[in-house]
């Protein structure tokens, strides 16, 4: 039986392109080129039927290692805590104050992009910073 080696993470959201561009900044991802025959994504977007305009967007890891991210507009807003969240791993291998400093520096970079710092969890050795993205989805700086 074949084993799945790649996957995509899909976000239900209100503003797909805006959320995709936020995550590009967070993760260093890029927006793929527009479909063949279109100079820009805006050109592609206006060619779509009105009900499909601004309804989806995507980005990917330029190194090809991380999963693709797909954003699709849904009519309902976020109603509860995520059952799944992303961990932005910036402190791997670090402990104590050094780990905390790395996580706080990343948190400080993300807040001006629109992320919200929820709290800092630190026990003297390990640390994690729960945050919200620009549409209120939980993620952790870890």
Your description of this structure?
The chain has three helices and eight strands. It folds into two domains: 8-73, no CATH class; 86-141, no CATH class. Strands 4, 5, 6, 7 and 8 form a five-stranded mixed β-sheet that branches. 24% of the residues lie in helices and 23% in strands. The protein is globular, with a radius of gyration of 17 Å.
Care to count the β-strands?
A: 8
Q: Number of DSSP helices?
A: 3
Category by helix and strand content: alpha/beta
Distance between the termini: 34 Å
Q: Estimate what percentage of residues fall within beta strands.
A: 15-25%
Described by the principal axes of the CA atoms, the overall outline is: globular
Give the biggest beta sheet: 5 strands, mixed
Query: Mean pLDDT, nearest integer?
Result: 94
**What are the segments in which pLDDT stays under 50 over at least 5 consecutive residues?**
none
Helix content: 10-25%
Identify the quaternary structure here: single chain
Q: Return the domain count.
A: 2
The ordered H/E elements are: EHHEEEHEEEE
Quickly list its features.
five-stranded mixed sheet; 24% helix; 2 domains; alpha/beta; single chain; 3 helices
């Amino acid at each position: 039986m074949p084993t799945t080696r790649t996957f995509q993470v899909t976000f239900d959201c209100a503003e797909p392109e805006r959320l995709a561009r936020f995550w590009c900044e967070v993760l260093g991802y890029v927006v793929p080129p527009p479909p063949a025959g279109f100079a820009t994504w805006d050109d592609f977007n206006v060619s779509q039927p009105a009900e499909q305009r601004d309804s989806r967007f995507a980005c990917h890891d330029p190194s090809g290692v991380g999963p693709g991210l797909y954003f699709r507009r849904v009519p309902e807003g976020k109603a509860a805590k995520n059952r799944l969240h992303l961990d932005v791993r910036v402190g791997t291998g670090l402990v104590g104050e050094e780990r905390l400093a790395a996580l706080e520096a990343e948190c400080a970079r993300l807040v001006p992009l629109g992320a919200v710092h929820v709290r800092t969890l630190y026990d003297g050795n390990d640390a994690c910073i729960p945050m919200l993205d620009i549409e209120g989805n939980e993620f952790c700086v870890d």
